[in-house]
Design brief:
The protein is built from nine helices and two strands; from the N terminus they run H-H-H-H-H-H-E-H-E-H-H. With 168 residues, it is mainly alpha-helical.
Length: 168
């Protein structure tokens, strides 16, 4: 399913149970561009996270990412998990960085087990990638679920788009 690991195991849980991305690790690693991103009021408004609350109450990144990686492996069973997202580059970039830097078991996706719904849509529709954004999806591929920037909602939406695209 589209984004199932990314969205549910990480961001979706962070939006409902503060913790995954809230640990203030600047003292240990120096200020990163990821920290700078979360300091932007606009970004916090979109994802509806409270950075100060996440810093106070959030889980340690090593614990959260190790737990998330274990959940992905458990869901995959004997199969190789694949991160599916639309667009892949956004989710993959931060997720892979967090998994490789914090999960004690590394990334369950390895370094390349991923699938980009946007590129699949472009190829199947014979469109240039630049013309294959979410707003360009034909009605028959659009999900009835809204794109809210809440991770669980967006995961459902991506899964629906992915399923429809693969049935096309």
């Amino acid at each position: 399913m589209a984004g199932w690991a990314t969205q549910r195991a990480l961001a979706g849980e962070a939006a409902e149970v503060p913790g995954v991305c809230g640990h203030d690790h600047r003292g240990g690693f120096g200020e990163s561009s990821f920290d700078s991103f979360f300091e932007e009021a606009e970004a916090l408004h979109v994802n509806k996270l409270d950075r100060d609350r996440l810093i106070r109450e959030g889980a340690d990144p090593a614990d959260a990412m190790t737990e998330a990686a274990a959940w992905v492996r458990q869901m995959a069973g004997a199969r190789q998990p694949v991160l599916v997202a639309f667009p892949l580059s956004f989710d993959w970039t931060w997720l892979y960085w967090y998994l490789t830097n914090f999960s004690r078991d590394g990334s369950p996706f390895g370094h390349s087990s991923c699938f980009d719904i946007k590129i699949a849509f472009a190829v199947k529709s014979r469109l240039p990638i630049s013309a294959a954004g979410r707003s360009k999806l034909p009605v028959e591929l659009q999900a009835p679920s809204p794109h809210t920037h809440h991770a669980v909602d967006d995961a459902r939406e991506q899964a629906e788009v992915f399923a429809r695209l693969m049935e096309k």
